[in-house]
Known about the structure:
The complex is a heterodimer.
Chain A: E1 3-8, E2 13-20, E3 23-31, H1 42-64, E4 73-79, H2 83-100, E5 104-108, H3 109-121, E6 127-131, E7 136-142, E8 145-151, H4 157-167, H5 176-184, E9 197-198, E10 201-202, H6 205-220, H7 226-252, E11 256-260, H8 267-279, E12 283-285, H9 289-292, H10 296-310
Parallel strand pairs in A: 1-4, 4-5, 6-11, 11-12
Antiparallel strand pairs in A: 1-2, 2-3, 6-7, 7-8, 9-10
Chain B: E1 5-9, E2 14-20, E3 23-29, H1 38-61, E4 69-73, E5 78-82, E6 87-89, H2 90-97, H3 105-124, E7 137-140, H4 144-148, E8 157-159, H5 171-188, H6 195-206, H7 210-229
Antiparallel strand pairs in B: 1-2, 2-3, 3-5, 4-5, 6-7, 7-8
Helix pairs in contact in B: 3-6, 5-6, 5-7
Bound molecules: adenosine-5'-diphosphate and magnesium ion.
Amino acid sequence: MTIAVGFEGSANKLGVGIIRDQDVLSNVRHTYITPPGEGFLPRETAQHHRECILNVLQKALDEAKIMLKDVDVICYTKGPGMGAPLTVTALVARTVAQIYNKPIVAVNHCIGHIEMGRLITRSVNPTVLYVSGGNTQVIAYSRQRYRIFGETIDIAVGNCLDRFARLLKLSNDPSPGYNIEQLAKKGIKLAPLPYVVKGMDVSFSGILSYIEEHLSGWLDSKEFTPEDLCFSLQETVFAMLIEITERAMAHAKSSEVLIVGGVGCNEKLQDMMKVMCKERNAVLYATDERFCIDNGVMIAVAGLLQYKTQGHTSWAETTCVQRYRTDDVHISWRE
Amino acid sequence: MNNFELIAQGAEARVYKGIYLGKPTLIKERFEKKYRHADLDKRLTKDRIKAECRAIIRAKAAGIATPAIYLANLERRCIYMEYIEDAIILKEFIDKKVSKEINDDRLLNFIAQGLGTIIAKLHLKNIIHGDLTTSNVLLKNIDDDHIKKYENAANNFVIIDFGLARTESSVEDKAVDLYVLERSLLSAHSEIPRLFSKIFDTYQKHYANKNQCKEIVSKYKEVQLRGRKRLMIG
Ligand SMILES: Nc1ncnc2c1ncn2[C@@H]1O[C@H](COP(=O)(O)OP(=O)(O)O)[C@@H](O)[C@H]1O
Ligand SMILES: [Mg+2]
């Protein structure tokens, strides 16, 4: 039996998760929440992680009922993400590894999402829709890589939702996306937003600037309420995501879909995907916010797979990188 | 549609095969997508049926092999078009052939010659396909002799699925069209990484407007760089 700890801090969530082989022993997270109208910036986010990380780690150990000396391998997020928060998290992971003399594994954040999604849902070889604050990708596995079939050509879908929430001054607690989802339930009228799909790629920045341009007019004239706009935004961007997922499935002849990443816990998105899957006799796999939203367990899961097939990461390579593509990682643990 | 038989469910439509006015015909039905809002669904379906018909007619006029359009019905969400007989989808052809003959340059040259010349022709007429993947290319009457004499490869290629096409376009649109193709080849056909650059070479050779060709190439590099540089925060 192998015990792995995962440290995640690439954006505004700080997480520590502990697993024993395939069992989750604990999954603790603390989120840096900014006031309405404000996004999170690297310096303040790093400060938050620095303040919380020891408590989060202790809580994860307590819940798992283990001590650091019982751990077999330390895993941390190497990237992609924001430099300063990544560095804080890596620093603690490296320190713990040194003090307790444990092997350390550097993990790609995106691979963490995918591998944890596969583990939790037991899906075998799904087409993956990876949707979060910084990423929007449709991915399928072949020949030891997760290959990117489609992606955003500008901003990520989560970033689009977050910035829209800021325009409407919605609360960031627990997350902008969650509050958009709740308001959208009361929306009725569909605003005609740009819909941009290029093959298996999508673009969101045009939608955002279109909304920026029309927002005050719409609200002042009462043509659309904030609820209508939340509803319209979700209907439009989610339809785009489902369309490119379906296109990738048709192309790759796949009949399984897995949704991962923070936006993936949106129930409206999951419901829409379910309908599409039914129309093509495919199966949808999704998880809830405990696993969709960035967390430490995902890093432990991917790190442990990597550790078992490739061993630990050499000390000199336990650095951080802001850019780190999903398809850069050699997937040694799959056929 | 009584004597028509469902043959496939593609990326966005169901396709049926049968006989219409005595001719082998394919009906492409963009059935109602229940996952999206009915208004959005209507708007997209209408736009795409129109785009597909318009682009196919333009492409045909430019001498590119595409199925002939027989009938379009916006109310019933479908297009009746020529059924291409004895054809194989390029994706399946590659999966079958190339995995065995991976180092066969003739095969790569054949595909590159066919696609490169056709895409150049489309772009010269300002037609953007919008979804250039190997699932949207048919190969007809293909045998080993054809592959050896690849100069005329374009005669064996039929381009389909113009739902995301546009018939007016900028240099950037053309560059993005090529980038979409490159990415789809890299993801679905990673075993033949050289294919795209061969296609692009042929494209440049056949792009008659040399000044614009230069602009497209440099725009393409820009688009590609943008893709690589995109910051990806988890
Ligand atoms: N004109 C045609 N003749 C023969 N087969 C066709 C024709 N058009 C489409 N097909 C078949 O139907 C499939 C789906 O058609 P396509 O136009 O690509 O629809 P979608 O937008 O749903 O992908 C194609 O991959 C091909 O196998
Ligand atoms: Mg198609």
